[in-house]
Structures are given as C-alpha cells and as structure tokens.
Automatic annotation (TrEMBL):
Domain 3-hydroxyacyl-CoA dehydrogenase C-terminal, first and last residues per copy: 76-155
Source organism per UniProt: Aegilops tauschii subsp. strangulata (Goatgrass)
Entry keyword set: Isomerase, Lyase, Multifunctional enzyme
Protein name, as recorded: 3-hydroxyacyl-CoA dehydrogenase C-terminal domain-containing protein
Record-level Gene Ontology MF annotations: (3S)-3-hydroxyacyl-CoA dehydrogenase (NAD+) activity; isomerase activity; lyase activity
Listed GO CC annotations: peroxisome
One protein family per Pfam: 3HCDH
C-alpha cells in the first residue's frame, strides 16, 4: 500500500482483487476465485469471473483493447514482467538493493517467480537489456508512461551491460 501511495505513476491499481475479496472469492480457501475448486482441489476456470472483470473495468473507465486481446502468451509474460524488471533496475539505481542477486532471491521467495528461471534479474539477462528496453519504449509510446524505461535500464541497454553486473560505482545500501 505504501508503494502505491508513494509511486502511483509506477503501478496500476486494479479493483479486480478487492471486488473479488468483497464477495469472498479468496481462491482455494473459499473454493472460488478465478477458478472453481471441486473435490480433491481440482481447479477449473470459473466463467463467473467475467462479471468481476467487467465491473473492475467499468470502475476504472477502461474498455478492452482489441489489439491487446490478441496478445500471444510470450507477449503477455513480457508485458507483466518487463515493468517488474524496470522497477528492479530502479531499486538497484536508488541503492535500495545492492546486488541483482538479492532481487533474484526476493522475486523467487517473495513473489513466487519460477526458481528454475533464476530470479527476475537473471531471467532479464537471458533476454537482454536492449530487447527489454526496446519493448518498454514501444509500449510507453503506445500505452503511456507506466512502461517508460528507467535511466539505469536505458544505460545498460545502450552499453550492452548485463542487468546483473555490479554498478561501476557500487552503491551502499540505504537500508
């Protein structure tokens, strides 16, 4: 919540989860969420979720973009995680974290990033800062400043420096 209050331009606050929680759609614990849970924990997509999605969209004043509705799985993953990598770069640049590997561990244990990918920064390195920066720039032009790449990412993309490489002047943690 503090992050949302301090950096509203860096997040999208969806009303979907609060609306679902209001209706006690807490997932497996309540046997309904995005999925319905039958016997033996078997999850199946719940068609009722569209009602909640439409209500959330209405509250936000947005309509589905036909182009976005056709995105491939790869494009969806990139649109979700490239802003996470961008924010991780800001965290390193601001000295909130000192090493990219700290953010890899945090992404695995804190947000459930797949361990076999090595963490969000290592995964970003496998894709390349230049590609990530290019995609974020493209989306910023098309969809707004939420996707605007930070200077740390821009510098690494321009110079071909891996995201996980230590900064030239390694900052000390502010924490």
């Amino acid at each position: 919540m503090q992050y949302l209050e301090n950096f509203p331009e860096r997040v999208y606050k969806s009303m979907l989860i609060p609306i679902m929680m209001e209706d006690k759609r807490a997932g497996e614990a309540s046997r309904k969420g995005f999925y319905k849970y039958e016997d033996k924990r078997k999850a199946t997509p719940d068609p009722e979720i569209m009602t909640y999605i439409q209500k959330s969209r209405s509250m936000a004043g947005v309509t589905p973009d036909a182009e976005l509705m056709k995105l491939s799985d790869k494009d969806i993953v990139e649109m979700v995680f490239f802003p996470v990598i961008n924010e991780a770069c800001r965290v390193l640049d601001e000295g909130i974290a000192v090493k990219a590997s700290d953010l890899d561990i945090a992404s695995i244990f804190g947000m459930g990033f797949p361990p076999y990918r090595g963490g969000v920064m290592l995964w970003g390195d496998s894709i390349g800062a230049k590609y990530i920066h290019g995609k974020l720039q493209e989306w910023a032009k098309r969809y707004g400043s939420f996707f605007e790449p930070c200077s740390y990412l821009a510098e690494r993309a321009a110079k071909g420096i891996p995201l996980s490489a230590p900064a030239a002047s390694q900052v000390k943690s502010r924490l």
